[in-house]
Amino acid sequence: xxxxxxxxxxxxxxxxxxxxxxxxxxxxxxxxxxxxxxxxxxxxxxxxxxxxxxxxxxxxxxxxxxxxxxxxxxxxxxxxxxxxxxxxxxxxxxxxxxxxxxxxxxxxxxxxxxxxxxxxxxxxxxxxxxxxxxxxxxxxxxxxxxxxxxxxxxxxxxxxxxxxxxxxxxxxxxxxxxxxxxxxxxxxxxxxxxxxxxxxxxxxxxxxxxxxxxxxxxxxxxxxxxxxxxxxxxxxxxxxxxxxxxxxxxxxxxxxxxxxxxxxxxxxxxxxxxxxxxxxxxxxxxxxxxxxxxxxxxxxxxxxxxxxxxx
Length: 311
Fold this sequence. Notes:
Layout: H1 11-36, E1 40-41, H2 43-46, E2 48-55, H3 61-69, E3 77-81, E4 86-92, H4 95-99, H5 103-113, E5 120-128, H6 130-158, H7 161-185, E6 188-189, H8 191-221, H9 227-259, H10 265-284, H11 289-292, H12 299-309
Parallel strand pairs: 1-6
Antiparallel strand pairs: 2-4, 2-5, 3-4
Helix pairs in contact: 1-7, 1-10, 6-7, 6-8, 7-8, 7-10, 8-9, 8-10, 9-10
């Protein structure tokens, strides 16, 4: 690796350098969480029981959690929607869950017997076997791998290899940080979150390619400038567009997060975090890595001169 150009350090240059090493620290922290804690895989991947029911009156999360604790073994997960009228209970696939399979009937009887009776109406009860969970993990992993391979093939043709490496590094950074967030917070990782990871890959790549295209454009038109100046100019020329796109997307995701209920909360959290870190990485990683790998401002000029010398 070559050192970054020894040019006067502007604010943007300093921000890129500090941001790059800060991002590397976040990546290490995320990897530590993934290896030490792992992901809290949902029933989509592990198998188990999913029970849905509704109540005639609104019930607080704390009250329902306390009522269910008398009938269910430790480890169940409770989520609500429709202002405490619609409930979802997730249980791991184990013997204790099987023994307490009639817990919903007992809970309904208890609620009716209380003053201000609340009736419970079962909606759906689903059992997902571990074989189904293993299949989903395999298919999800293949989807991510396929997306990564196609992206690498595209970038190999579209860009100079160091610009392509910067885009791939930014992509990996974004995915690892989102996975690390789920590992450290213990948020449930289900199929909707996996779908958001695939969306983050596309979004991150889009931003990185736009910056990379601008860097290449200015390298061809301003080969006598320093690499720092070219990268900073490329970032400035795309910054307004990036901020507008990211801002409107974040506003939409925030609405989904606040209004769509618990079933899409993981999806919203992953996408929100992915877009934030994706916008950041397009500035501090995708544009900085090629420079660290030795890309110089006169690269395309030298390529043109070599082409002219060929017989």
